[in-house]
UniProtKB/TrEMBL annotation:
<dbReference type="Pfam" id="PF00106">
    <property type="entry name" value="adh_short"/>
</dbReference>
<dbReference type="InterPro" id="IPR036291">
    <property type="entry name" value="NAD(P)-bd_dom_sf"/>
</dbReference>
<dbReference type="InterPro" id="IPR002347">
    <property type="entry name" value="SDR_fam"/>
</dbReference>
<protein>
    <submittedName>
        <fullName>SDR family NAD(P)-dependent oxidoreductase</fullName>
    </submittedName>
</protein>
């Protein structure tokens, strides 16, 4: 059976790095994001990568998208949920719509993708679901209320899924990124920072790859990653 990986939330940074890492390991990679133009451009430079237009908050289309992936590439064995983002405001300043938007992307989108992928994941002797998260899942700062509350809920959801699906040999893990990811926009905003201040997307992809390869006798649920100089 062909190895098939789905990456939800492919953009510059972690998403693209995940696509490249799993492609290098011989996977057929389904790249899901809203920007079809970006995905098609990336597909030209990454072997065995395939573009699928997808909005993680548009859960009405999740079923047909995963059916199309299975038909074109085969049943999914690795699901990587990298869709994320948030509103950084206090609980007083944020609107109820801000909170709902964060929940829809970080929690509802993960539920929908998992439900759609499970029939395919269950076709394999071993499968994986890995969620890319942030340190906000573990600590709610004053001006991160919508984002932190959604990320905390996402972490609890992933933990629940891990306990439910583990006996089926479906490994659910979460990677908590504590630091600033190296992106053109973060470099521009923090031009005074040295190279080793930033989290390298390729290193995040290596960590995710490692989780998917762990022996079931020693699975990791939560893995936190940060630059060596990060204060924690």
């Amino acid at each position: 059976m062909d190895k098939v990986c789905v990456v939800i939330g492919v953009g510059e940074g972690n998403g693209e790095a995940l696509v490249r890492r799993f492609s290098e390991e011989g996977y057929r990679v389904a790249m899901l994001a809203r920007s079809r133009e970006y995905l098609e451009s990336l597909a030209q430079s990454v072997a065995n990568s395939h573009a699928f237009s997808y909005d993680a908050t548009d859960t009405d289309k999740v079923g047909e998208t995963f059916k199309a992936i299975e038909k074109q590439l085969g049943p999914v064995s690795v699901l990587l949920y990298n869709a994320g983002g948030g509103v950084f405001k206090s609980a007083v300043d944020a609107s109820l719509e801000d909170f709902e938007a964060n929940w829809r992307l970080n929690v509802k989108g993960l539920v929908a993708a998992t439900q759609a992928a499970l029939p395919q994941l269950r076709q394999h002797d071993r499968a994986s679901i890995v969620v890319t998260s942030a340190s906000a899942a573990l600590r709610g700062r004053a001006n991160t209320a919508p984002f932190a509350s959604a990320k905390a809920a996402q972490r609890s959801l992933a933990q629940s899924l891990a306990r439910q699906l583990g006996p089926e040999k479906i490994h659910v893990g979460i990677v908590v990124i504590d630091g600033v990811v190296d992106l053109p926009r973060t470099r521009k905003a923090m031009s005074d920072k040295p190279d080793d201040f930033f989290v390298q997307p390729s290193a995040v992809a290596d960590a995710v790859w490692m989780l998917t390869q762990q022996d079931p006798s020693a699975w990791t649920f939560e893995l936190d990653v940060r630059p060596f100089g990060e204060s924690w």
